[in-house]
Write a structure and sequence with these properties.
Blueprint (H helix, E strand, L loop, with lengths): L1 H18 L18 E4 L3 E3 L5 E3 L7 E3 L4 E7 L3 E5 L6 E4 L9 H8 E2 L12 H8 L9 H8 L14 E4 L8 E6 L2 E7 L7
Parallel strand pairs: 3-7
Antiparallel strand pairs: 1-5, 1-8, 2-4, 5-6, 6-7, 9-10, 10-11
Helix pairs in contact: 3-4
Amino acid sequence: MRRRSVLCILAVVVVVGLGGCGGARSKRPVADPHVGQVFFLCCNLRYDPNKPEITDTIAARGTLIPFATRVEVRKVTKDSVQFDAPGHPPITLVYEHGSKALPFDRYLSRLFVTEDPRLKLKKVPARQVKLVEKATITPGMSRDQVLLAVGYPPADQTPSLDAAVWAYGDGAEADAFVVYFDGGRVSSVQRGRRAGRR
């Protein structure tokens, strides 16, 4: 009888343990050097104020947190980061699309930087700076200006930042868009569900 009870308890532990591993996002904090530190935000980010959780697909609509905003990293799990930006609710970013192409810790180092990104715009005409601040991409912009304006493209779609095409969104979203480069400058931007199919 006692042996049967022990087996039942073990079975429950195994089932519960397996159920917790089934691809669900981990909420358990991990030790990370970013936690408790203040950084500059690398690029403009947008979020839905009703649900301040975003992913690395980069939202095209919503409330804007400007690049160079000072943010404090509050919590890091194996696939998400929570941070505070003045004037905004705590934001959680879930790393869904790039883990096979770019380790999460490298992604965090791209997102949270120690040098003010505005320094990259010192010699850029004021009109171009305004476009970057409004998260608008236009032909002639440099790769750095695109990164500041709309962030890094998901690494599963654009594993190399040297690529001639950067794809944003998951392709099924109306907000998906693709940036085409000729050398180091934007040649065109294609928006909508059919983005990327030239």
